[in-house]
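INTERNAL AUDIT FORM
Audit reference: QA-55
Scope: verify that the stored structure record matches its stored sequence.
Auditor: D.O.
Record contents follow.
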Amino acid sequence: MSLQSPPAATAAAELPPGPGKGLPPGAELSQGSTAPPSAQEGGEEEEGEEEGEKEKEREKLPPIPSASTAAAGGLEGGAKNQFSTFSNFITTINQKKEGIGNRNSPTQLVIPNIKTVRDLPPICLDVRQKQRMSIDSLPQEPKAPFPPEPSLPIRTKTVKDFQDDVEKSKASGDWKAVHYFYSTTFDSFLEINAAFKKDTSSPFNTIEDSGIDAKFVDVVYDALLNTPQDVQKSVLKGIINGLLQEWTGPRTKDDLRAYCILLQNPQFSNTSTYVIYAHLLRQIAALTEADHHFLVHWSKKISQRRFKQVVDRLLQFISLRLFPAKPEEFPPMVKCNWWIPSATKVLALFNAANSLISPPIISYTDFYNSTLDHIDLMEEYHNWQCYGNSHRFSFCQYPFIISIAAKKVIIQRDSEQQMISIARQSLVDKVSRRQKPDMNMLFLNVKVRRTHLVSDSLDELARKRADLKKKLKVTFVGEAGLDMGGLTKEWFLLLIRQIFHPDYGMFTYHKDSHCHWFSSFKCDNYSEFRLVGALMGLAVYNSIALDIRFPPCCYKKLLSPPIVPCDHNTLVGICDVTLDDLFQIMPELAHGLNELLSYEGNVEEDFYSTFQVFQEEFGVIKSYNLKPNGDKIPVTNQNRKEYVQLYVDFLLNKSIYKQFAAFYYGFHSVCASYALLLLRPEEVEILVCGSPELDMSALQRSTQYEGYQKTDLTIRYFWDVVLGFSLDLQKKLLHFATGSDRVPVGGMADLNFKISKSETSTNWLPVAHTCFNQLCLPPYKNKKELKQKLIIGISNAEGFGLE
């Protein structure tokens, strides 16, 4: 099925574009966004000119009216009153400061009158990506001239001085010194830099060092929430002043430092501060790509605790804007539809920063927002596909925020729509030829003999290649079982088990890493590798978890590229590989190469190696040059890094190219979908294999009963026995009852496991209906009998029959 390229996606709804031209190659990588390939590029020049004019207009800030003017003019005065609410807010704070009775006790911060905020004009960056790009690397540091840094005030307070002031205030109840520090420090971006810059005389204009005194920032923020309310309000007042002052003109590195510090403010966890927080996020989202580049690299230096807090705060902001607990707390969505796009884009910067470090600061799953599981995901997906070149925001542009469970829903529904489309077309073709419709034409019917499983499956899939996107149904010749899902599961299990057997020779099992890798042996026909790829694709397409042990590198190659190129001469399955990837497959060899890199002696004289490798194929030793004339180029201390990189690339890419290319095309012959652009390699692995971690206690909590109560003696015996089983027996039970020993993406609860009472004699063994994940259990009289019959049943569970 060929895919037409939808228009490119943009980064945010109703946001004017940022600088899209004149950026260094790959500059958009810091966004962590994903856009389908663009099919329409006409008229971009005219759009750019119009958008440039709009950008200039937005930079002309209106004057800030006084509170009385705002009250007289109301919110209908257009541009002149854009900041009326901020002015009211500042005035209200000043008026209330005098009337605060108890200034010595910390109280909850309350921001008055944010319901009717007149929002600033929205901004955004237009994302036009021609293909999916990795965020694992960022462009080279831009060499653009820096705006001149204004001179900073001299501030001499140290961490110790501040801590002493706080302790004195707590003891005496007099917070004047602390209040003065906070109100002065956060009054402007210059003051923020004066307080927290490690050396005010140094520019710190590089990505390596932000120049921020992180320890001082942590101490000040940790103490902030324990100060009286008027102190906390003075900080927010200062932030508002800073945001208004810094709205126009080019950003200096001091401005970026201030943004980086303000993002860490714990006050923004309170919904009453969300209006201010939203405007901060909007300004950061509007920065140039070069400025984002600095923020990404500086953010990766933030402590793990603070980094996680900022990410959680952004996720909470998005969730509460989508589903507010008290809608009256926020302005109407029509007036602030730029809140979520701005927050998502800032979150993308932190995702990019997280991806730059190995191991990452936090897990990629910490960026998941489970709230998105409850929105219309298919609408998001179709907006991303169909309206990419318009100013319509979609979370699919930022797939890192979408949980694996939500992505699974998107892929399943996309698969169902393709199944229905293919089946409908088959029906129409049949009717147009005046032939009688047959229900079997709506399915991919695979008929195999157990004794010739691989050859029959290969023949069936090759012969019915046009039907691969139909619903799969399997029939075992000579067996009366009807496939309602259980036969399909067993077919996958048996076929995978046979294909991956060492005697079959397609894959090599590495005991040290407990995973399979492609055999590099050359052969005349690679169709069986295509079959394995198609099997994996069918498993994802039909929501079946497979017991396949491929290393993570395999799934990275499977998404290189995620969409099959139209030009068949384009290389597929080739990705950047490192020594870490080799460690996951051949740890002993990788350790040896690592020793070579760290060897302190003379590599050329001591190792006497060249840029040539040797492999045994069917008892014959063959040599391969890693580069032209490699057998004549010695490995030295100077070129050993190149040697290791070429060796790793040879093992994981070049030596198995034909095998993996066939595997790649087999997988994508079934799973060709733009939904794959949303997935990380780790997520593809989870979709294919499910989770190997069994939590039988979770299965017990989610199990349904028919004819039994969970307090019945037989059920209590059953769970006592199962929870005491070894892992191997627990897997056998799961396979016996469901047809697979893998846990689906949603966990044990997604199995919908049911135990039914069997009214047969207790001499009978348990019976399973794998199509429905149902176990039929006779009412055994004691635990010993139940355990004995259950182990016999689950240990002899191959084959199907009808009663």
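Auditor finding: record pair retrieved intact. Residues 1-32, 37-51, 53-146 have pLDDT under 50 and may be disordered.
Action required: none
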